[in-house]
Amino acid sequence: MWAHYKRLVGNSVFANVFLAAVLLLALLAAFSLRRESNPSIEYPIVEVRVTYPGADPLEVEEGVAQKLEAAVDAIQGIKRYHTNSSEGSAMLQMEIADGYDVRDIKDKITNAIDGIEDLPEKAEPPRIVQLDEDEEVMLVALWGSIPERQLKELAEKVRKDIESLPDASLAYLHGVREYELHVEVSEQRLRQLGLTISDVSRAIQAGSRDTSAGSIELEREPIRPRTAGQRKAADATAGTVVKASRTGELVRVGDIASVRDDFVELERLARFNGHPAIAISVQKSPGEDSITIYEQVMDYIAATQPTLPENVTLSAGFDNVEFIRSQINMITRNGLLGLLLVVITLWLFLEPRLAFWVAMGIPISLGGSLVLLWIIGASLNQISLVGMIVVMGIIVDDAIVVGESIFVHRRRGKKAIDAAIDGLREVAVPVLASATTTIAAFAPLMFIPGIFGQFSKQMPIVVIAALLVSVVECFFLLPAHLNHETHQRRHPRGRNPLVFRRKVADGLETFVDRYYGPAVRWSVHNRYVTLCAAIAIIFLAMGLIGGGFVPVMMWPGVEADFAQAYVEFPPGTPRSTVFGSVNRIERAARALGDRLDTKNGDSFVRDTFSDSPSGVDTCGRVLLELTPTYNRDVTSSEFMAEWSREIGALPGALVVSFEGAQIGSGPGEDVEFWLLGNNVADVRAAAEILKE
Predict the structure, then answer these.
(1) Rounded (10°) CA dihedral 185, 191, 193, 195
(2) In this structure, are residues 442 and 463 in contact, taking their beta carbons and an 8 Å threshold?
(3) Distance separating alpha carbons of residues 373 and 71, to the nearest angstrom
(4) Which residues contact 269 (CB under 8 A, 6 or more apart)?
(5) pLDDT computed for residue 535 by the predictor
(6) Residue 445: C-alpha distances to residues 110, 387, 459, 460 (Å)
(7) Per-residue pLDDT tens over the stretch 404-433
């Protein structure tokens, strides 16, 4: 076997071709891999949402939520489910068990929900969706002092333009009011024609199946059936026939009422940096590149801004592209720094040729992992990049061991090819064992079930691929590149022309001879003392973890540049109260940001955006984009604590919460309790007791 291996190692053409192929493929993969914040996964979660206008939470619970639960309770493959009933809407969320096809279970859920026959008449048809993996890339805000209708039309145009970009496919509007059809009926005309409000409402509903009936307003009894927002609905509704006489005379809605297009009667809450605004959320689908989308949108904004009215501005913010770029740049910097340190260190202690080829193990191994990610359709994201950081210090160790062994045999006077063979033979088993045990340690991470497993499996793929390529590089490429005689003959170890390098190498040998060698011999001679010391260190490490001195978390949180405040009021709270509280939260953030210093003098709070999440009338939120982490000494957690004190108490608020958008799980909730019961009041009372 070693004879065949000697011929292979002696053939430097194979080594050079393999090296060039790996580096070229790695370069191609680096430019072809998608770049995104999180890996693309399939969420095993299905949601059913039902809108029930005008119903309080208890009515929604009894009339909708309980019936949804009963319909899906017997479906096999649902791991767990829960419902959330709020004013005017119900949501049923189901988690699909491992091993079941999510789409197949979704079809069964759809059939079960469609079979419900006793939902309230006013409830809208259920919407059944699977939680998607779309990731928000950035937020584009359109703001200015123009009429709301004109601003919405411009925002809709911007949204369509963004979706038509080559690499962007998803964009959604936030902070817009839906169109509503207002029908103001003359009570006197109704009496004259012998009609009622119900007659008018039924006629409108029958004539506009794709929209609701609009808003019918009388002095004493307003009725507001909504439309889907079609701009031409007013003319069509005005021509709707309400009554036909025996003589053929038609009574239309326009004969007894005035019809106009308008917005729903809610105060607008969406604001960008204090200005009324509409936000366009730009998202990526699986297979799309976050950085490419960001660059195309920024180019679009630069080209579109001059075409907008003078008092209208298109701004971009709240993007995660800077984080992705910083991670990629960190990997690049660490890789180059690792190469430099390895080359310098080995050059000081060994010889330049050995230092160079050992250092080449880093780009070769990482390049192999990039190629594998490209082949399997993965991406560059925070998980795969962390995997590269983890493996970077491991892959160079094997090359150092093999290279040092070859170097020792060359110092004994052997020919280069013989030194390469004998040096590798001496350490081949330990090096292979080291790589395989590390692979065995990371391999189980590929089989973790659930959502977390889908996130984490890219790390072991990167690590294992890099280790396998590293083994190939150590066993075949490194000996092939170290089997030349010229370098050894030119620079014998004891006659190196660089005095500093010679002194460092001599100093290391002196340390080995005087201190390290005797210490190793003593440890081997007193093996039981060494064993007890090792066991003591293991127990010490376990004690540090078990005693809580070293905190344990599933995934470390990374400081991000976003913060959010959320406020919720009881059902029926006036919109003005919610609006005032949100403004107060936003002003407090700006005031606090003005007091905090940054390293380059920029504003601590870059941008603010406030709106009602999911259009809930009694809820509001404020999103903040902070100056980048490297430009401030205050963490987002410290900022939010001071932000809360700056706001003070919000009278009447049920919930006031703050959240920092960390990358990763961070500290998170350690324990979560769910209280179950048949009576809502009893459950709430028990929750208060448990909380205390």
Answers:
(1) 70
(2) yes
(3) 42
(4) 175, 575, 578, 579, 582, 610, 611, 612, 620
(5) 97
(6) 34, 12, 8, 6
(7) 888 888 888 888 778 888 888 888 898 899
